Each structure stands twice: as C-alpha cells, then as structure tokens.
Amino acid sequence: MKLLILRHAPALNHGRLAGRTDVEADCSDQAAFARMRARIGDPDQVITSPALRCRQTARMLGFPAPHNDERLWEQDYGAWEGLPFESLPDLGPLPVSELADYRPETGESFHDMAARAHEAIRDLTCDSLLIAHAGTVRAALALVVGPQALSFSVAPLSLTVLHRTGDLWSVEAVNVTAP
C-alpha cells in the first residue's frame, strides 16, 4: 500500500499557533496546486483532517468531497493555542523522547496525537492520500523512525510518501514540493 500525506496549504494563522484552531488556508497559488495535483495522480481514496485548511486544500486539488477523519487533526496544544509564536515557551534542549511526551497545559503530547493518527493510518487498506497537518506527517514518519520524526521539517503543501508491506513501513520521500 502506498500512503501519500500532503500537508495543507499555508495556514492563515496571523503568526499564531493554530493546532486545533480552525483557520483558513492561503489557496492563492493556483500554479502550485496544479503542479502538486499532477504529482499526486489519482489515489484510490482521499481522506482529510476535518480542519477547514485541509478541506480547502482538498478542494483546490480537485477533490471536492473527501472523507474526513477526526483522528487526523493536528496536535491539541491546549493553553498554547492562539499564542503568537514568539510567546511560546522555550522547552530548551529536551531530548526527543521527552519532547514527544511533553503535554502543554490542557493539551496533548506528540505521542498522544500520534497514537490516534496511527490508528487511522493502520485502518487504511488501499493506496491513499491524506491531507492533514505537519504533526500528522511526523506521526506517520514515526511509524518508521520513532520520535525522531519530530526533527523533520514539513513545509506547507509538501508531500510525504510511505509504503506499507504487511506491518512494515518504509519512507520513499519527505517534504517534496511541486517544482
């Protein structure tokens, strides 16, 4: 099975952490959408996070009515939601394993988010395109590399490709943008 995961178009978050906050996407670069659509091809199924920015991205790619899966929502940052990026706490040089377990007040950890995303990913039975968030991409990568997936940068409107054979996952590409 081939799994394509596309991070949504740039979030119109006004310099604030969006996470579970439902903000719109900047869908103005029609040429980038056309190039990415050509790169994606025709997956057997398209599933999005219920977030508006993901659904807008799907529509711009020509997938007007994809299935939404609540398990693909971005990490819930709790008390950090809506804070300007420069106001977020500095967690210092936490080891990746501790960072993956860290929960902002009233929020969830990367491991919490990854557990629900993994459930959604493991339920897939055919070649699929997920349109979701940077956290969802990192959760999928964690199936191969563990919490080290937190070290990956994931650009807006970038594609990550994984393959599953039985229970084994491999990575074909990460953070690919349309030329």
TrEMBL record:
A Pfam family that the UniProt record links to this protein: His_Phos_1
InterPro entries per record: His_Pase_superF_clade-1 (IPR013078), His_PPase_superfam (IPR029033)
Organism field: Paracoccus seriniphilus
Top-level taxon in the UniProt lineage: Bacteria
Name of this protein: Alpha-ribazole phosphatase
